[in-house]
Amino acid sequence: MENGRERQENTKKRLIEAAGEVFSEKGFRAATVREICGRARTNISAVNYHFRDKDGLYAAVLEYSHAAAIIKYPPDLGLKEGATAEQRLYAFIHSFLLRFLAEGYPSWHGKLMAQEISDPTRALAIVVEKSIRPLFNRLAGIIEDLLPAGRAADGEVHEAAYFCAMSVVGQC
């Protein structure tokens, strides 16, 4: 038998998963809280209780989908310590593409990211800080390891590595 805390967590997870499906199908603006709650089999007040509003629910969905995608397809794809820069670059690109194009649960991560980039919401700044920037910096670091000059001494990314990383992401 579920206690109150378990029931709340179950409701919260159902809302996030239903919202992920609806947001990925319709986009943030066209999605309705009513439809999300219908799919989650909960009442509308549960969104206010757990997430404050539709924006809060959307931010939770983006964070959840990114975390689930990273767990399923980590940027190093399980490479062992001491892998070459070429192996790390291959694993990074492969995992990046898997996160965007994968089928199965949660298949909506790539759709959400594409929608957020093409039609940004207020959540974009959070997505950039928590998801995109750390992965981009990791990619730029791998590319710096491939450059003859190596990594920048001041902790900044070489301009060449930055543009190469932008090129890789753009091609993906």
Topology (elements, then pairings):
Elements: H1 4-26, H2 33-40, H3 45-51, H4 54-72, H5 85-101, H6 109-118, H7 124-146, H8 159-171
Helix pairs in contact: 1-2, 1-4, 1-6, 3-4, 4-7, 5-7, 7-8
Describe the structure in your own words.
With 172 residues, this protein is mainly alpha-helical. 70% of the residues lie in helices and 0% in strands. It has helices at 4-26, 33-40, 45-51, 54-72, 85-101, 109-118, 124-146, 159-171. The radius of gyration is 19 Å and the shape is elongated. The N and C termini lie far apart (47 Å).
- Globular, elongated, flat, extended or rod-shaped: what is the shape? elongated
Helix content: 55-70%
Question: Termini, distance in Å?
Answer: 47 Å
- Strand residue content: under 5%
**CA-atom Rg in angstroms:** 19 Å
H/I helix tally: 8
Compressed to H and E, one letter per element, the order equals HHHHHHHH
Question: Could you report the average pLDDT, rounded to the nearest whole number?
Answer: 92
Structural class comes to: mainly alpha
SS elements, strand count: 0
Uncertain stretches:
none
- Give the biggest sheet: none
